[in-house]
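Running log. JK asked me to keep both predictions on one page so they can be read side by side. First protein, sequence followed by its tokens:
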Amino acid sequence: MTPRFFVPLLSAFLLAAGAGTAHADATLDKIRQRGKVVVGVILSGPPFGTLDPATQKPIGYNVELAEGVAKGLGVGLETVQVQPSNRVQFLQQGKVDLLIANMQWTQERSEILSFVPTPFEEVGGAAIAPKGSGIAKWEDLKGKPVCVSQGSNFTKPLAEQYGAQIKAFRGQPESLLALKGGNCVAAVHVSPTLRELVADNADWKNHEIVSPTDLIPSPSVIWIRKGETDVQSALDRIVQNWHRTGWLIEVEKKNGMTPTPLLHQLKDKFSKTP
């Protein structure tokens, strides 16, 4: 079964590749010359990323994917912590070479950045609220204040489809703090983080996931600067190999995540190709 977003992603990739054939980008050469790749990562909390309390080094799913990129390129790794409010600027300004930053594919984002066409996952949003809030479905957010991160792809459907009043914060920690402070009735962020929060964190025992389904599940992709077709091609080969070998499934299980049907579909797809 072919994932539903393969066609638009492939079309966008072909357009980007065609536009960049006249001049190869220099970023891949720079990465190899310096001997390391600089990856912007979101450390929004488990399972995606956090700081190891013992070493203060970043750990988690996003960090392991960044390590996989570095290994695939045969170079070292430097991670830079980014926020939803600054991640695009960090990439555009050259502070990082690429983003693995909880940033799902959207048409709007693809108009200002390029991306690796093979996704490494599919992630949607969940809503967390205090127990007894009376919220049981997305429609219950109509006319109510909802906390999100700045630049979240969940903002548009929450406002336009469900009529929520959006309150945007620098990142997920600030948004969740605002929820606890009563500044909003619910907060909406990537589903795996919120589900782990209410399941394993005693500080959130009085909160629950109130959304029956995830909001706009979308492909998770690696983001790069426009026109960097050499980097795009190199990273796409790496991601395809992650699927081919089943490495992504292993990494998700290691980080307490449940691999989506998409991962199994892509493993089947790429295991049949050389």
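And the second, directly underneath as requested:
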Amino acid sequence: MGGWWSNSIALYAEAAHMLADCASLALAILAIRMAQRPASADRTYGHRRYQTLAAYTNGLALIVLTVGVVVTAVHRLLDPPHVQGTIMLAVAVIGAVANLCAFLALDGASSLNERGARLHVLSDLAGSGAAVAAACLILFFGWVSADPLLSLALSVLILRSGWRLTQQSAHVLLEGAPPGFDPHAVEDELAALPGIRGIHHLHAWSLTGESPIVTLHAQLTAGADRREALTVLVKHLRHKFGVEHATVQIEDDVCAAPADEEDCHQPAHHTLKAG
């Protein structure tokens, strides 16, 4: 590809990110619609994890695009081309206005999926800003190297954001504990509730990185009412820790798990569920 357009790596980066933004927004919208589908026999939790999967895909796309910009920018530093600053500035300003409108439209994003789409637009907006700054430096000072140097500086920030988004969504997909949820602290607090002797085999994860889902075993004190203890546990989990769904296994004596089993996931005969 020849001509003035190929001479600005900042504009190349902006164009690439704008294309990625379109794909990112389409993927985010598709994931939101898929998440609204009802649960089925083979998807008992529904389809909400499509949003997390979309966020993970968007994070990987940001990383791949940014690496491509870095490689090209380094090449331009070693062999600086002639850049037409006036055209570069005009295109960059138009792109900045369009990206600002898209960024404001996505204000208030909360889920990983929505944050991923907004991050794409934010990176594109930052790219437009870098292109405007580079064009001004080229026009007023003739500093051609400003184009690849600003692109490299911007790439570091975008790469960091893309990595964090990918890491956070991967954590959710791998059923890691939600941010701020300390299983040991939760065990200690639940064990102090009336009728509860001890809590063990507590596991916490989430579908979209927000509300926790918890399973646990609860040992009761002698003479404690099972239904009352279950109600107290579920209410405390919901109101204190924001637990969306809880599965509680009530035990009157020793753990119902086999003695040689280090971790217990299979419910015993007297499992009580609430959620």
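Observation for JK regarding the second prediction: The chain has two domains: 4-173, 183-274.
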